[in-house]
Amino acid sequence: MNNYSVIGKRIKNMDAVTKVTGKAVFAADIKLKGMLYGKILRSKVAHARILSIDVSKARQLKGVKAVITCEDTPLIKYSIHPLMADKLAFEDKKVRHVGDEIAAVAAIDEETAAKAISLIKVELEELESVFDPVEAMKAGAPDIHDHVENNISKHFKMDCGDIEQGFAKSEFIIEKTFTTHAQSHSSIETHVCVADYNPDHQVTVWVNTQAPHPLKHRISQVLAIEPEKIRVIPPYIGGAFGSKIDLDTTHVACVLLSKKTGRPVKIINTREEQFAATRMRHPSITELKFGFNHDGTIVVKQAKAIIDNGAYNSHGPSVMGYHNVMFSSLYRVENISYEGFLVYTNKNYGGACRGYGDPQATFAQETMMDMIAEKLNMDPIELRLKNANHPDEKTANAVEITSCGLKETLEAVKKASNWSEKKKTKQKYRGLGVASMIYTGGGSRGSGFNYSGATMKMDASGTIFLNTGATDIGQGSNTTLTMIAAEILGMEPEQIRLITSDTDTTLPCMGTFGSRVTFCAGNAVSQAALNLKEKIISQAADILGEPVERLEIKARNVCVAQEPEKGVAFSQIGAVSYSQKQEVLTGAGYYDGPEIAKNFDPKSYYAYPGPAMSFATHLAEVEVDPESGRVELINFYAAHDSGKVINPLLAEGQIEGGAVMGFGWALTEELKFDNGRILNPNFHDYKLFSIKDIPQITPILVETCDPNGPFGAKGLGECAMVPTAPAILNAIYDAVGVRICDLPATSEKVFNHIKSK
Asked: What is the pTM of this model?
């Protein structure tokens, strides 16, 4: 056991007081002199050819300063990767979903901007639409994008082992189809952007983005502006969960409107716009076929997945890639087959959403595992233990398991829930359900890179500054990264000054998503801190006349080991370095992962997921009312292997928040569509899981030590919601004997299943 002074402490979020006292400045709070307000005109039909756009009346409206359409925008398609580019900021020929962007205005206030939008006349030729991905793949279905056969954006097939022989040698075979639905990210803060294009052709963008450095380059690409002339500054961010990674028409419109008017422009999405025009979790259809033996050994597993892409790619190809990787990597199975289809439909399009393809795959696989346990009359936990991944091995699809606490998570929830006793003394309409998961804990490798940079310096006063490109979106990464630096430098976290996210002042970072910040940015910070530590000790050695090997850092002093009275303070080291040597002591760190993680396949968009894998097991205890179908969560246990836990307090918060997001996806949240239009674009009709329904959540931290992570840490944020839904639905089956394989398990759906038994 390592004796750390900072790592492992329950330290509160360093920005907690700022936020709860209302002092935090979010993007919507930004006010600039002469600022205008923008609005975007969005399509009201799902699929139509654009015949004409008349903006004359809008331009004539008093208070309107600019109107832009596709004619004002370089016709450069974009996505998260050039290979997936299929979206224009403003469509020039046709719209492909309700909410597709057509034009934008800038006016003196939001009311005038909204009125101007209503005055724009768009002549459309409505086209046949297709909303079901299975129908979209059929011959004769409407073409959503030119030159895309059967509306299939990406197709991928992978076989490991001998599938035919695997089924031939299996004593039992089970087949089942599972469907999942669209989910809104539902972050408290909607999309907000403020852009100021000054006369020197320098543009500053204040935006609540998860990935400021990639966003800077995407703005550059789409608007043909040199990257060095773009500055992206994220203020405080009110949640994201994947929704704020992409370039968005909001960003493009703000920059163009500011350039055209010579004034700063702000655009704030309404809640309805947020639902209709931003990304959502991809719906999916997953057909599974498993072969297994009487002792519970899984011999072969086969999946055919159809991922509903919606109208554009966004993260769709990599979400399908991760759906495959997570399905294929969980459990020790030698024979694996996966075929995936990413299909365009005329619905709002999917994007990155917490779990990134893993929740869809895990729901199918973990429900299937319970079906196998039932077939064998075997305890579901014992079945999972029988097939659990082991550390220091490769999966059939060549994923290296460098650390693994899957068995420990299973045993932890079993003990915490009193599983064995409750199974023996089962109460009527009460049920227990369990589900496990695997996720890339070393960061997303979807495009073959995973960079993160950090710098540290000591100024003339001895003050230590940490500079990182990682963005805190509410998960507490600023605190975690500061703790890593503080541990190495023998300081308290509050003694380090943090500078973050501004693209003009920080080294590039890929962004905050994919459970990558603690691992990737943490590795960069660790390197920077070690580099600075070496220079501080070297400077102290010159001052003290002692060899560096005799020196150590304690409490902002460098002293001789075993002689703490003989030392020199940071303030003196900084002063000497600055005044006598005319230098500021600095350290730099950069992380981009091992070479094995860079085997990116541009055709399939399949990549090795990362250098470390995280594991978890969730266990739900429910009570089902057979007369209404209402599912009440009684207790919930969530055991996570995220390597060495840097801050247990923040880790537990992540687990609790992820579980609640999973509760909603499992039971209440469902985007409802009518001809491509979302019918419930508000929190009155879109049923988030409310605080009164949240059960006692017991987070359990199972610590392993991954050799690739900072202090042995792995990722957690995405993992926290992944196995929640299958655990709950397995518990529903245990309670009332109905197997629901299509999410969400609403009260009505549960009731209908009970009555049809």
From this structure: 0.95
